Amino acid sequence: MTGSGSFIGRLLGFIPRRGVGLIGFIVLIALTFSLGYRLSGDNGTPSLQEPMPEGHDHAADEPTAWTCSMHPQIQLPTEGKCPICFMDLIPLESGGDESIDPNQLRLTATAAKLAQIQTQPVRRAEAEAEVRLFGRLTYDETRLSYITAWAPGRLDKLHIDFTGATVKKGEPLVTMYSPELFGVQEELIQALRAVSSTSDGGRLLKATAQTTLEAAREKLRLYGLTDQQVAAIEKRDAAEDHLTIFSPASGIVIHKNALEGMYVTPGTRLFTIADLSKLWVIFDAYETDLPWLKVGQTVAFTTRSFPGEQFEAVITFIDPMLSTKTRTTRVRAEVDNSGGRLKPDMFTHGVVTAQLDADGVVKATGSADETEAPLLVPATAPLITGKRAVVYVEIPHDDDRLFEGREVLLGPRAGDFYIVNDGLREGEIVVANGAFKIDAELQIHAKPSMMSPEGGAPPPDHDHSGPSATPVAAARQSKPVEAVAISHQAVMMLTGTYDAYFRFQAALADDDLEAAATAADDIAAEVNAVDMKLFEGDAHILWMELSNDIAKHAVAAAAGMDIEKVRASFELVSNSIINLHNMFGHADERTFYLAFCPMAFDNRGAHWLQTGSIINNPYFGAAMLRCGEIRDETTSVEGAG
Question: What does DSSP assign to residue 443?
Answer without folding.
Answer: H
